[in-house]
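User: Just a sanity check before I run the rest of the batch. Below are the structure tokens for the first item. I only need the designed sequence back.
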């Protein structure tokens, strides 16, 4: 087990996710990789990705790492407990986007980081994140 996600892994996750999006015909993506403490390890914006996609991708990943569940599960929680999600968002400084595309990175059952992607549909963003994480031999947890 490693001590967390490293820069080389983060760069591979990003490159794979962006290529996955290109191969599938997605709109331009922005990818953010965070470590277990919510710090940005690496981020990249594809040509043509709108300027605020970084904040959305970061919010997907940061919300997931902060609450400990993928942003797909956060969306379900928001539908069931909107006051909790609103309060949690406020508690973590507003960086919580509860829609698919924020995926936990796990190794040996431990969460070592998160990937957030924004640019296409939320489901497509999530699929690109999973492809990136799996490309470095780590487990993707969407829920």
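Assistant: Here's the designed sequence for the first item:
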């Amino acid at each position: 087990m490693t001590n967390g996600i490293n820069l080389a892994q983060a760069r591979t996750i990003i490159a794979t996710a962006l290529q996955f999006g290109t191969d599938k015909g997605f709109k331009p993506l922005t990818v953010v990789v965070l470590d277990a403490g919510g710090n940005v390890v690496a981020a990249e914006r594809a040509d043509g990705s709108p300027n605020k996609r970084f904040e959305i991708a970061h919010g997907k990943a940061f919300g997931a790492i902060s609450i400990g569940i993928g942003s797909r599960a956060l969306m379900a929680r928001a539908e069931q407990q909107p006051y909790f999600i609103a309060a949690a968002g406020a508690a973590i400084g507003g960086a919580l986007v509860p829609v698919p595309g924020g995926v936990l990175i796990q190794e040996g059952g431990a969460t070592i980081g998160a990937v957030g992607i924004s640019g296409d549909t939320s489901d497509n963003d999530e699929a690109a994140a999973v492809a990136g994480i799996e490309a470095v031999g780590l487990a993707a947890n969407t829920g």
